[in-house]
Amino acid sequence: MTNPSRFPALAAPQSEKRPVSDTRHGITRVDDYGWMRAENWQDVFRDPATLDPAIRQHLEAENAYQTALMEDTKPLQQRLFDEMKGRIKEDDSSVPSRDGPYAYGTSYKVGGQQPRFFRTPRDGGDETMLLDGDLEGEGKPYFRLASADHSPDHNKMIWGYDDKGSEFFTLKVRDLAKLQDQTDSVSDTTGGGVWNAQSNGFYYTRVDANHRPSRLYYHELGQPESEDRLIYEEKDPGFFLGVGGSSLNDFIFVDIHDHQTSEIWLIPANDPTIEPRLVAGREPGVEYSLTEGGDVFYILTNDEGAKDFKIMSAPVDAPEKSNWTEVVAHKSGRLLLGHSAYSSHLVWLERENGLPRILIRDRKSGEEHAIALDEEAYALGLEGSAEYDTDVIRFSYSSMTTPTQVYDYNMRTRERTLLKTQEVPSGHNPEDYVTRRLLAPAPDGELVPVSIVYHRDTRIDGTAPCLLYGYGSYGISIPASFNTNCLSLADRGFIYAVAHVRGGKDKGYDWYENGKRLNKKNTFTDFIAAAQHLVAEGYTSHDRIVAQGGSAGGMLMGAIANMAPDTFGGIIAEVPFVDVINTMLDDTLPLTPPEWTEWGNPITSATDYEYMSSYSPYDNVEAKAYPPILAVAGLTDPRVTYWEPAKWVAKLRELKTDDNPVLFRINMEAGHAGASGRFSRLEEVAYVYAYALKLAGKTQM
Q1: Which residues are annotated as catalytic?
Q2: Alpha carbon of 557 to those of 54, 474, 553, 571: distances in Å?
Q3: Confidence grade of residue 4 (pLDDT, cut at 50, 70, 90)
Q4: What is the mean pLDDT of residues 588-598?
Q5: Minimal CA–CA distance to 307: which of 448, 540, 514, 479?
Q6: Are 603 and 588 spatial neighbours (Cβ–Cβ below 8 Å)?
Q7: Which residues form the Peptidase S9 prolyl oligopeptidase catalytic domain (predicted)?
Q8: Residue 521 CB: number of other CB atoms within 10 A?
Q9: DSSP letters of 512-572?
């Protein structure tokens, strides 16, 4: 499939080299392209116009180059966009969730890019539109709505937005009787707030100069932002600060955590003047989370060696660890993912043998049962209920061939009611597609799950092209869920595959631990093994596999490009974390200190430095042949800064020995999540898929 002649023979942008050396642990590294990191990067996040003109000129040259090389795919991009848009019900609406006298939901209007928030009377009736995202974002090149949370008295709503893509969210308060915003406004937040019990004030977290959520404030309605009271400040830059509320509106949860340690403080929701109360102090490697169950808290934790987690309980008036009592025992290989409690039932979501299921326990009798499901590979979501005194919870189900179905489930009678099946307006017949779960042998003998879907007419003889997706970090599992976009590839003869590599929790907590820090290379070799297994089983061939991953999955793309370039016919790296060692050495960047538990700390540890340096994609580019590569980024991205892929692309072009092009597309008006509207995002997906189809020689529409 690798055929550089499919691209016009245009000269790629040339990058100036300005060598800068850095010595750590007795090792000297030279970075020729460090100048692409704007010295005023924090200002650029707030105002992209402040970007150094020389850097802007270089990025615009990159955009011009990739546009020229992809010019012939524009009709295909439009066709793909139309197909994907045609599978979306434009005036879609969620099933409203009951809470008190109302039921709340979200909807879209035909042609609308942004969600709208509405409510109806509890048992149905006319909708009242509370907030129209399209109206609020009108005229802005970037606009992203955050959460919208109604107050306990149902008279007000906190809502947030980001209009730069840099994740500095502004919060506003809307009067739901007048459907107008009040004067209340707070800036530089993480996007959400939690009401107090009286509905006359709310808690929120604010990011600091390094874009880290480190301070908790209380805002009293009617008061200026400058008078908001600081409740808690986290001094350790390696920890994130978050805030949440209990379903009974009794407590505010102050959540402090990194990727392996957590600490929770409690504030009575009816009195912001009371000092926060500590539940359990942070212990390295110990995680826990709370849900309120009337007179007790239920605590999901990995304490005392419960690697795959267990559930404990403690009295609400004495929640300290010394009072924790086991409720659901730890079982190795059964990972507990989340839990919630209601007046008569305890509910949790677990994963065993790579598949999720929902467990329900009667709090009085102790009787348990599971919600049974059948398919070979599927995705399950536990939405629960906004109300505590209920027997009915909500869950969602889908597979790679089955559109999402939303159910209400009565925990007492065990009856399920189908509320909604995802509509595909242009049509979808599940019988037209085949889904499978494969197990690929890794070099060390582990079996890596691979979920695949393809059209039933696709010949399984090694000739089909394949898009192989991977992530593998932070314990995030990629569900085998329904994806209408990938059908555009399947309908054109592609096999769409997801490799559930180590670094996620797809096979339990061990699966995560064996793909992080000094085990990180397992993530890369697992992905390579998945590609090799697809070839061995006759699904595709190596020169017809296009690898895809984003963010930490983009780091995976950079690593496999260095480690096994002949295994892939092309690579798509979206917002790729490829300058690993430089980023983890820069403790001024937003995510660096909190990420040390995931990747290691190369500042203090020579071992971490050497191991990280051995796989960091930017540092390991060599003078050898690489497959065609596409990198995609956003200028205002605070998570993976734009200069990471910019530097990587420059170094690839400098050293590689082949004629395969390296393309770099950067959205100059967006951040980590790309374009903000639902259809604008589809345009980006259409571009990426057109690139994969171009590599496969399938540009005929």
Answers
A1: 551, 637, 672
A2: 28, 16, 6, 7
A3: low
A4: 90
A5: 514
A6: no
A7: 481-698
A8: 16
A9: HHTTSGGGTHHHHHHHHHHHHHHHHTTS--GGGEEEEEETHHHHHHHHHHHH-GGG-SEEE
d(CA 501, CA 624): 26
The range of the structural domain enclosing residue 527 comes to 4-85+427-695
Q: Is residue 482 part of a domain?
A: yes
Model pTM score: 0.92
Q: What is the CATH number of the domain that holds 640?
A: 3.40.50.1820
Reading the block at residue 321, the tokens are: 């660890």
Q: If pLDDT is split at 50, 70 and 90, which confidence band does 3 have? A: low
- Distance (Å, whole) CA 229 – CA 235: 17
Length of the chain measured in residues: 701
Burial of 307 (0-12, 13-18, 19+ CB in 10 A): middle
Domain count, the chain: 1
pLDDT at 42: 86
Q: What is the pLDDT of residue 661?
A: 97
Q: Note whether 642 and 634 are within 8 A (CB).
A: yes
Q: Is 335 inside any structural domain?
A: no
Q: For 159-208, what is each residue's pLDDT tens digit? A: 999 998 888 999 999 999 999 999 999 999 999 999 999 999 999 999 98
Q: What does the angle CA 298 – CA 301 – CA 302 come to, to the nearest 5 degrees? A: 160
Q: Would you call 332 exposed, middle or buried from its count of C-beta atoms within 10 A (0-12, 13-18, 19+)?
A: exposed
pLDDT at 45: 86
Query: What is the rounded distance in angstroms from the CA atom of residue 266 to the CA atom of residue 277?
Result: 5
- Look at residue 417 and tell me if it is in a domain: no
Count of other CB atoms within 10 angstroms of residue 439:
14
- Reduce the secondary structure of 46-74 to three states and give it as a string: HCHHHCCHHHHHHHHHHHHHHHHHCHHHH
273 found inside a domain:
no
